Each structure stands twice: as structure tokens, then as C-alpha cells.
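Q: I have three molecules that I believe assemble together. Could you output C-alpha cells for the complex as a whole instead of separate predictions?
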Amino acid sequence: MGDFTVLIISSIFINNIILAQYLGACPFVGTSKKMETAVGMAGAVVFVLTMAGMITWIINTYFLVQLNIEFLRTIAFIMVIASLVQFVEMFLKKSIPALYAGLGIFLPLITTNCAVMGVCLLNVQDELTFLQAIITSAAYAVGFGVALVLFAGVRERINLGRVPSPLRDTSIGLVTAGMLAMAFIGFRGMV
Amino acid sequence: MAKTIAQEFKKGLWDEIPPFRLVLGLCPTLAVTTSAENGIGMGLATTFVLVCSNMLVSVLRGIIPSKIRVPCFIIIIATFVIMVELLMQAFTYGLFLNLGIFIPLIVVNCIVLGRAEAFASKNKFLPSLADGLGIGVGYTLSLGVLGSIRESLGSGTIFGNAVFGPNFQPFEFMVQAPGAFMALGLLLCIMNILGKK
Amino acid sequence: MREMVKMVITLTILAAFSGGLLAAVKTSTSDRIEQAVLEYVQGPAILSIMSDVSNDPLADRFTLEIDGTDVDFFVGKKNGAPELVAFETKASGYGGDIGVMVGVKIDTGEIYGIDVTTHSETPGVGARAETDIRFKTSFVGIPIIDEEKIQIGDDGGDIAAIGGATVTSRAVSLAVRRAGKIFEQHKSEIKKEVDTFSG
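A: Yes, here they are, computed for all three components at once.
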């Protein structure tokens, strides 16, 4: 159990997917202008990333490795993620419309969120077991959510201030993200 | 045709230069620009995929049914990404190791899919080629510049050659994650100032 | 219905085309890739350990299955006789796995040299494991199965830890101890394979 705690903490804080591994920077910058969208995106990512981590692990272990065609991993994973997103979208629309209303518009964006693809590839690269892969995927997703929501909170404040015009928007956003990343470096050495 | 081929090429170098004007493809921009060499390597790999996928998408634009065009584009892009992956593994293994998972991640780089969807699927072969090449070269330039800045400040070298003399203390912050975000943010600010003129 | 059929056909043709093309590229590059992996990942480490051998250790290699995974062994010859063997083990350091190449004298079981192959340690701190000569040479000459001695000074062993990078130093020591276990348990197989390279 101790191992899993370490895994979870290091995936959320120390190796934070955006601030330490640079994955998912596009939605991080794109959907963090308002708290509401940030929370929606974070929710959608947690949901899809956990499932994608699970399914790609199964596909990799029982299909790609067995048939010795690991070099096709990229194409297999992207197809799985794209279909999964589509499927989740249809499922939510029919069964849980309330959730769909909240997450719906973010789902198509997830296909090209490199955090999802990146974590699936990292899971394979680190040769994790099935249980580890699920936990890591979920923890990375939570890390993404934490960083995104924190960042959105800061950004909402910044937009109220008077920022010099060339720095406005994305530019000051990235500098702020840098400071947030610096804070996250403080978590290193925790484990 | 409203624009000439040369114009399609040139727009990628300034008017729509990614990732500054076209805020897409940020992840590799942040991750691989720890040195000028890595940045340019990543840029060239992306350019290859961009040009090839733009050409093929443009050729096949009449054949692919519009309902399933996105899955088709993804297959085309992924094919070229794997090809780059294999070729880099074979011929530039050192670079392949440095770029790591960011090579397969070209597949989810919004620039590539974005150009296929927004440009190549609506335009003829040559303009699509020029568009891919222009955006690709622009991206390579951006990554090269950002890589040079970060490498020179963070490690005191450019392309592995020392630039500041022996007494320079490397500013290691620049080659780590926070430096990546800040360098990109400030470079964007400079671009905004220059763009105003 | 017709549209549906067209979609399926397009996707199938595209997928087949992509699969075929990639298989072709894959086959034509696979030799080159294997060579490149050896040269870049393990090559520099092996050559730095076995700088004074008379053969090419990258070419004289064999593979043994150890605990379910394939481990490559590289043979070093002196004056034509195979005397050294090097192989890689791993242990987790501060920022992920550290790969350590360990060279052993076959007859005495003494460590001939070690080198770090892959790591993701903090630049300027743990990353010095790759360059710190004092740290690396402190392994030389210790019998590889001596678990007491292959520990950093703070833990009661003979290894000179890298200043400020205790975690990394411990991890490298652990990797070397693992190499010792492999060497001890598979000694006869290793010797048998190595002997095929003599003459």
C-alpha cells in the first residue's frame, strides 16, 4: 500500500503532468481563463484519462506485445483514444445528460490533449502493472486538474489587474505558469 | 487562387508563425527546447510530418467522405509520425533519446491536425505543400530560437559550444520547467511588441 | 447504406496502406536501429569501462534470460583471452530509474569498473554520478558479491558518495549489488558463454 501512496503523491505533485512533464500545455493555457471552464476540463480529463490508461494498457499488453507490433503503438493508441472520446460523448449524452451538459463541450478537445496520449505512452514506457497503470493514470489526471484549477484561479485575478498590453493574455499566463511550476519544484524530494 | 504559392509559404514564417501567432503545439515547444539542437530536431520532425500529411490529405481530399475525415486524417498523420520515429531511431538515435515520448506525441500536436483540417482538406496539392512547409519551417525557427535562448542561459552553450567563457555560471532555472514557461511567455511578449509596428 | 460502405472501404484501404508502408519501413530500418541502440545507450558506458581491451565488446556479446528478462552481456578480451564481462542493472534514484553498466573480472569476481548508462537525476547534483571519477573508481577492485562493502560510507561501506547526492549514490550502489547477485547466481552459465569467445 505504501508503494501506491508514493506513486500517487509523486504523480500528482512531483512529476505533475503539466508543470514538470510539459504535457497538456495547450488546454492548460486554452481553458484556464475562467474557473468554470477549468473545472469542466479537469473533470473531463480525469474521466477520460483514467479510462484511456486502462484500455491502452490492455491493448498494449494483450495485442501489440503479443503480436510483436509495438512499433504501431502510436497509431493504435490514438485510434483508441479518439474512439473512446467519441463513445464517452455518446454514452453521456444518452444516459447522464446532466454530466454531459457540464463536460460535453470539452470532450472533443481531449482527443488532441497530449496529456492523455502522453500518460498512456509513459505507462507503457515505465512498464507498469495493470493496477499501477490505472492508479498512475488517475493520479496524473488529478494532478492535471489541480494545476489547471489553481492556474485558473490565479489567472482570473490577473485579468482584473492592469497588465501592460504586450504581456496581456497568453504571455502573462505563461509567466504565471512558470511561477506555479517553480512552486511545484518545491514538492521534489518529498518522497 | 487568391494567394500565390510563395505567399502560402511565407505566411508561416511571420503572420501565422506557430506557436506565437498560432497558439498551438505548446507541449513540445516547452518540453524539447532545453537545447537548440533538440528544438530544431523536433521542428524538423514536425515539419516532415506536416508536409507529408498535408500533401496526402490534399491529394485524397476528394475521396475521403467528409463524415469520417478526422479519423482518416489521424491515420495519415499517425503513419508519418511512426515513420519519423523509426527513421530517427535508425539514423539520429541520440536525438531520438533526447526527444523521447515527444516524437510519438507529434500525432496529437494540434498544428498538424489543424493544418490538415483547416488548409489541406480545402486546397490543391501545391498550396498545401507550401503551407505545410511554411508552417513547419516557422515552427522549427521558433523552437530553434527558444532552444538557443534557454540553452545559452541555462547551460552556457549553443549547439554544445560554450558561448560565455569559462567564468559563466549556468542559470539552471532556464533548462527546467519553470524557465520553459517563462521564456516562452516573455518571447511571446517581445513578439507582441515587434508585431505592433 | 452506400455512403456507409464507402466509409468502411476508405478506412480499410487507408489502414492497409498505412500498415504496409510502416511494415516496409520497419523491416528496412530494424538492423540499423538495433545497432544504434547499442552504440548510444550502452556503448559509451561499455567502452569507458573496457577502455583497454583488445576486441570490440559491442560485437562480442551474448544474451541470457535472467528472472524472465533478457540481459545482454558484453565480453572484453585481453591478449586474446576473454577476461571481463559487463552487463547492465537498474535501481531507482531520485528522478526515476538509473541504469548502471557493471564490468567484472571473470576469474576473481572483482569489479573492473562501473558507469552510468541512463538516468534522469537532477542536473548538477545526482547527474554527477555520470562524471564523478572518485565515486566511480571507488567501486573498482571490490569483489562484486561483497554486499557490505558496496554501500556508501554513511551506510558502512567503501563507496565514496557523491557530495549532496546520497539518494543517487545509494541507488547506484544498489544497482551494483544487484549485478553481484546476478553474477553469483548465474556464474556457471556466464562462464560457459564467455568461454565460447576464447581462441
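A: One point stands out. The radius of gyration of chain A is 17 Å.
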